[in-house]
Amino acid sequence: MGGWTVRDIGGLRGRRAVVTGANSGIGYHTALQLARHGAAVVLACRSAERGQAAFDRMRAAAPDADLVLGSLDLADLASVRTFADRHGGEPLDILVNNAGVMALPRRSTADGFEMQFGTNHLGHFALTGLLLDALRSAASLRGPARVVTVTSAFAWTGRLSFDDLQGERRYRKWSAYSQAKLANLIFAKELDRRVGELTSVAAHPGYAATNLQQAGPRMQGSSLMEKATGLGNALMAQSAAEGALPSLYAATSPDVEGGACYGPRLLQYRGSPVKVVTPPQADRPGLGERLWDVSEALTGVAYAPASA
């Protein structure tokens, strides 16, 4: 018996979606399938050149798709606000917080945050909060909007170091990545607890071949490590299209449970999407609330309560 595939996605005509990092990899395939099934999709991309190339490629693959290219740099809160102002005016049914960076040498965002925590978590925390009215508007028209935040199996090794979230005293690139991915997972769970008009879930792709793995070695100037990660992708990883299945399931399946996480069936490594077990630290009492308070303070984005 086969597992869930894109053929199981229902019709999405009349729905509107935003996918961050839609120019490549998992984000590209997530956006493509949402568009192919009728959703109007905003491709939220940092690079105008790569975004346009993805837009053109997607348009060729799905000529009738309703696509809009948007400029979004999650490492710059001013860019996040500009994007939300430009694309948050209409009801938003699906938000896929997909974009991310992995295992980079220490860098800072435009606002002075450590790049992995700032981009992967704080940028998406701010974006979701700034699009909250659009998500609530869709919920009032068509039922609960869906927010999918992409995490990673590296969340299992993550720890939120509240005394050094920005890695200023000690920075290890993989520990910083694990922390950011744990933050993604905790945010998804806490958002579902706090905002009843939404269904917030997490998803992770398992081991999928994207350019994410090679970005860190490239930034370090390590051609050997860049080649090694490329070889690993070729030999062991599933495709980016397969890696997008958990995100697509989380974004569209009527069986999704709020606060849950969806990933590959086989050891959370590869295969069709299912609900997966999450690391115990993601459900530690008070951790989500503490992360939320810190995130609001750092970004200046407060989630407004629902209007009466």
In short:
Keywords: Oxidoreductase. The chain is α/β, with parallel strands linked by helices and 308 residues long.
Main sheet: strand order: 3-2-1-4-5-6-7-8
Beta-strand content: 5-15%
Quickly count the helices: 11
Mean pLDDT: 92
SSE string, helix = H, strand = E?
Answer: EHEHEHEHHEHEHHHHEEH
**Structural class, from helix and strand content?**
alpha/beta
> What does the largest sheet look like?
8 strands, mixed
Instruction: Provide the CATH topology.
Output: Rossmann fold
What is the distance, rounded to the nearest whole angstrom, between the alpha carbons of the first and last residues?
A: 47 Å
What's the CATH class, please? Alpha Beta
Q: Assembly state here?
A: single chain
Q: How many domains would you count in the coordinates?
A: 1
Keywords: Oxidoreductase
InterPro entries: NAD(P)-bd_dom_sf, SDR_fam
GO molecular function: oxidoreductase activity
Protein name: SDR family NAD(P)-dependent oxidoreductase
Produce the secondary structure layout:
Elements: E1 16-20, H1 25-36, E2 40-45, H2 48-61, E3 66-71, H3 77-87, E4 94-97, H4 115-130, H5 132-142, E5 145-150, H6 173-194, E6 198-203, H7 212-220, H8 223-236, H9 240-243, H10 245-252, E7 261-266, E8 270-275, H11 287-299
Parallel strand pairs: 1-2, 1-4, 2-3, 4-5, 5-6, 6-7
Antiparallel strand pairs: 7-8
Helix pairs in contact: 3-4, 4-6, 4-11, 6-11, 7-8
